[in-house]
Write a structure and sequence with these properties.
GO terms for molecular function: RNA-directed DNA polymerase activity. It is a single chain. The chain has helices at about 5-10, 30-40, 110-120, 165-180; strands at about 90-95, 100-105, 205-210, 215-220. By secondary structure, the chain is α+β, with helices and mostly antiparallel strands. The mean pLDDT is about 70.
């Protein structure tokens, strides 16, 4: 093997094997091939002493997990909560009378609606009724990562007061996220704490507007 000084000299030259600055002894392609064959066929050398001090070691624990098969919405239609739609839209179902709902325009003529439903039924797998129907989705788009290494310390957030009516709204939204699999409960980690919804200070209450939406309103006293 070449010394470092000789290697630096080679790096400083152009790729010209006929250069007078290169010793002809080094230009031996056939010898190089024989040397490579000898290295490949030789027994591996034992590791250097204390090699762990110089080479970082990365240990990854492999866990044996059972393969879980998740049925698609086509094979096992889920129960979907149907919300009120604007006056120009309506629901139609691609499976039976209450399975696999889709939203279409109400003003369509009968033949247009029949043609649209026929196309939708022939491409049902292109529609997602739940997260698992989207094949190949990156979990980073639908999950949140927490830094839970030993070097980090949990941060405490104070409880937030909310109105009892908002408490029910929050509870329903959390239940939807649980059913969709976007979140899951953790009870044995110092990084999380039980969530308690308490009434909000400051004279705020919640009322329904003309569109049946809950909006915060300040109470007028005095």
């Amino acid at each position: 093997f070449l010394l470092f000084e000789e290697a630096d000299a080679f790096l400083g030259l152009e790729d010209d094997s006929d250069s007078p600055k290169i010793n002809p002894f080094y230009c031996d392609p056939e010898g190089d091939i024989l040397l490579l064959e000898a290295i490949l066929n030789s027994e591996p050398l034992p590791p250097l002493p204390n090699h762990e001090q110089y080479l970082p070691s990365y240990k990854k624990e492999l866990k044996v997990c059972e393969v879980k098969t998740v049925n698609s919405s086509i094979d096992e239609p889920p129960e979907v909560e149907l919300k009120d739609l604007p006056h120009h839209l309506e629901y139609t179902f691609l499976e039976g009378d209450d399975k696999l709902p889709v939203i279409i325009a109400k003003e369509l003529r009968s033949e247009e609606k029949a043609a649209l439903i026929k196309v939708l039924k022939s491409h049902k797998r292109a529609i997602a009724w739940k997260l698992s129907d989207i094949q190949g989705i990156n979990p980073e788009f639908c999950t949140h990562k927490f830094l839970m290494e030993e070097d980090y310390k949990p941060a405490v957030q104070h409880q937030r007061r909310v109105n009892p009516q908002i408490h029910d709204v929050i509870k329903k939204e959390v239940e939807k996220l649980l059913d969709a699999g976007l979140i899951y409960p953790i009870s044995d980690s110092p990084w999380v704490s039980p969530v308690h919804c308490v009434p909000k200070k400051g004279g705020f209450t919640v009322v329904e507007n003309e569109e049946n939406e809950l909006i915060p309103t300040r109470l007028v006293t005095g």
